[in-house]
Amino acid sequence: MAYSQPHSRVSVLSTSSQSSVEHLSPAASSTRFSLPSIPATPGFQASRPAGVRPNIYDRNLNKTRITEVSGAAFTFLFSEVVQYTQKRVSGINDLERRLNTLGYRIGTRVLELMVWRTEAPSKAPKREIRFLPALMSIHTQVWRAVFGKPADAIEKSVENADEYMIIDNDPLIERYISVPKDMSQLSCSSFTAGIVEAVLDGLGFPARVTAHNTPTTQFPSRTTILIKLEKSVLEREEVLK
Amino acid sequence: MSHHLFLLSPSDTPLYSLTHYSTKPVNNVSSPLASNLPNWSTSAFAGTLTALSGASGSAHQTSSGAVRMGGGQDRHVIQMIANASLDVIEDIMKTQSTMFLKSVDKFNEWTVSAFITPGNMKFVLLHEGKNDDGIKAFFTDVWELYVKAMLNPFHTAHTPIRSPVFDTRVRASAKKYL
Amino acid sequence: MAIFSLWVINKAGGLVYQRNFAEGLAQLTSNEYLVLAGTLHGIHAITSRLSPMGSSSGAQVIESESFKMTILLTATATKFVLLTSLTEHNPDNVLQKVYEIYSDAVMKNPFHTPEMPIRSEGFDTRIAALIGTGQT
């Protein structure tokens, strides 16, 4: 009780020396407890607005719109994420799946926050309901929101109508990662794939999204995010045509 | 006049609900179904049916009318109407790109308006009068609050929202706009 | 004017990276390199302990008749050693850049274990870009 009301305690200490007795005596403290902090609380809040716990609901969502995160801090964090995950998995597929799941959690939030920032000021906020514009907005807006630059290309699979690819020549999250030779299939961009999957899922285009290394001599860490759409999406696109 | 708000996750689990009694004047909407339905008494579901039909049986009537209980105001009936409107909402949201879907469904005195966030969360509001601008402003507020709630790393798309601050803010917004 | 070799010695005195860039030094086996790195670690410890001026970061340059070794000691006691010709004018600058590359390509790589030999493709390519691929 005394700790939650620093002000009353300070005033007691400054006026009399018997304060410690008062605090230690159970009888005295019980009278304090019998009066739940009604008189103390308003004064407490008014005199110490900074002491109130910060609250996400008080914060403007646009506050961090143009601020940037330290690249080094992010790479160290992501490196720890990969190490942590790697200790808890049985193989490369499992590791990629876990990174995907982690990315998914980011993606749901990115989507909601990103669209809120662009659409909330408008009179009639809109969602994306067609697939190709949604894919374009992932390529530019999502990439820009997450990595600070748009992705490098979008491609459509020639063989399969349900497959699309987003290509990043130099993925930010892999910039300092060197995958050992015995794990060469691993792509840490599975994390990015998870983000893409969450965004597509949220917009109502369920898909299976995976990441693959497709290096070229010019871009050794070039990565392809492969999107395999569910049948229902293609059917819906047909209807909407 | 009361309002009922439901926040539903993409898999239709309710995450938050609010009943708000407005002090603003009611402009009554007649309920055509209620007048057309006979007063059934043989069915075991008689109570629910009359409630669904919106006919206020003598048992449900209160004299004051400030807060009407029973009739179309039963909790389970409200939930049923909200759930029933989901089919309509899901149909419309596939073809219509606006997030705010006004008056998507009507049931007796209830009009259902909805708001679909980009992440496929559905905000469903049951209301009696017509107040499009107010409802839109209210939904916009709830959307902002929801975005903030989901930025919490412990929140998932299926976690009920129990934050007292969220609740207070939604109530304040309801008071302001509804 | 040539850079002969780059060594990275961990805080326990183990050689975790060694690469030759130019001919000129005697070719040794990897075991011999390990021993020499350990010896250098010891010499470095002696020079820092014996300093008459109180605490010292130890030897910075060791010069011989035909080449010199420049040592950069980091805050975490990792040592970067550059073996160059006597005329190489700015080995410290090169070492600073090597340190930078090390922090990027090695420390940020989740597949690197601290204090273990450096096997990172990213480190190799960046060092090659800085100093040269080898026998120039």
* Helix content percent band of chain C: 25-40%
Quote the beta fraction of chain B: 15-25%
Write the H/E string of chain C, N to C.
EEHEEEHH
User: How many helical elements of chain C?
Assistant: 3
Which overall shape of chain C is indicated by the principal axes computed on the Cα atoms?
Answer: globular
The structural domain count of chain C equals: 1
The helix/strand class of chain C is: alpha+beta
Assembly of the depicted chains:
heterotrimer
Number of strands of chain B: 5
Structural class of the helices, strands and pairings of chain B? alpha+beta
Describe what you observe in this structure.
The complex is a heterotrimer of chains A (241), B (178) and C (136). Chain A is an alpha+beta fold and 241 residues long. Chain A contains 9 helices and 4 strands; from the N terminus they run αααααααββαββα. A 4-stranded antiparallel β-sheet of chain A has the order 1-2-4-3. Chain A is globular, with a radius of gyration of 27 Å. Chain B has a single domain (2-34, 75-177), classed as 2-Layer Sandwich (Beta-Lactamase), CATH 3.30.450. Chain B has 5 helices and 5 strands, in the order ββαααβββαα. Chain B has helices at 32-36, 46-53, 75-95, 132-150, 164-177, and strands at residues 2-8, 14-21, 100-107, 110-116, 122-127. Chain B has a 5-stranded antiparallel β-sheet with strand order 2-1-5-4-3. In chain B, helix 4 (132-150) runs antiparallel to helix 5 (164-177). Chain B is globular and about 40 Å long. Chain B starts with a strand and ends with a helix. Chains in contact: A-B, A-C. Chain C: It holds the Pfam family Sybindin.
